[in-house]
Amino acid sequence: MIAGKVVLKKGKEHSIQRFHPWIFSGAIQTKEGNLEDGSLTEVLDFKNNTLGFGHYQNGSIAVRMLSFEKKSPDVKLWQHKLTTAIQLRQSAGLPSKTTKAFRLIHGEGDGLPGLIIDYYDGAAVMQAHSVGMHLYRQEIANALKETMGDDLKVIYYKSQSTVPGKLRDAELDEYLHGMGVVPHVIPENGNKFYVDWEEGQKTGFFLDQRENRKLLGDYAVGKKVLNTFCYTGGFSVYALNAGAKLVHSVDASAKAVALTEKNIELNGFNAEIHKCFAVDTFDFLKGKDGEYDVIILDPPAFAKHRDARHQAVRGYQRLNAEAMRVIKPGGIIFTFSCSQVVDRQLFYDTIVSAAIQAGRSIKVLHHLTQPADHPVSIFHPEGEYLKGLVLYVE
Ligand code: SAH
Hints:
By secondary structure, the chain is of the alpha/beta class. The protein has helices at 14-17, 76-91, 131-135, 137-148, 210-220, 234-242, 254-266, 281-285, 309-326, 344-358; strands spanning 2-8, 22-24, 28-33, 40-44, 50-56, 61-67, 101-106, 115-120, 123-128, 154-157, 174-177, 184-188, 191-195, 224-228, 246-250, 274-277, 294-297, 331-337, 362-368, 387-393. The strands form four sheets. The chain has a seven-stranded mixed β-sheet with strand order 16-15-14-17-18-20-19, with helices on both faces. A six-stranded mixed β-sheet has the order 2-6-5-4-1-3. A five-stranded mixed β-sheet has the order 7-8-9-10-11. The termini are far apart.
């Protein structure tokens, strides 16, 4: 049901006509009707022409666009967006014989701002980042069931830590369809992983590193590999299955280290070839000069907001300089940043500063990003968040 209208200031219609999905509060001339957080609103230009419809929310981003059509959306909207998203994944070869887990809805990239759905071989984990998506969760779940049919056994709604403020006071996480048994095993490029969407970070697994983990395999054959910020041990498992000589995994969280150990065992490896350390990466790197041929640096977002950007850049610089300093001559570093506010150029410049600080000769072998199941709308470049470089350190 359409709860009200938002009329934009003159000139503020242009970005919406170019399909940018956000309307900032400063672009709004007037509001009409009963607009509350999460209500569906019509959006009009200053001449009262309909530009589309979206979810209203008090805050800097006041409307998240769901449709750029004149006709008001109905329940079919969800099914239409889900079908389009599934087609996109199929065209990218997902799922495949060896990979049965992928991101099914990537917010703005799939025309559904505020919504994430990860698919883990029969189970969908839904996460709302806006009040609107939270309010429509059951409708979305119903559309998901209809679209995916019997392939979908479970829908788990996990938004306790992602929905805005006040909503978090209530218990939110629940099964909207079926009952899952966790941990659940997924195949990814033939590697096996346990996913625990109830207890794990985010939706339970970081699907965005799939292609980068595969590339790491090519560099890990016969090598001594250090995987820092390992979480579930994704890079570690790929390195071992590819034929690494030895892999060490590091994470500050004891829970993450336990998860990594379980995944290593699941893939048939033991403590002879793999060791886990529950310590801070910065501490671990001290005194490790010349021990590793390959080092992976995949830290959590050091900056979640613009104000924290400077501090984050210093963190990336210090971390990378230290890894560049200790790695064996001829070694390879896979380095990443998932901070949205640190863009590709800034990340690159930060790595250059780290190289200067480390004083070693370094070459860039690959520029990495997020995979096709984390699409970026061409009109919403903010959607690109994962940046990576593969470096050769002489
Ligand atoms: N590389 C992982 C995802 C990393 S998520 C993958 O492919 O799935 C980031 C991880 O960094 C989290 O598990 C968190 O516990 C860990 N972490 C955060 N700060 C850390 C620190 N200073 N040292 C080591 N680990 C840290």
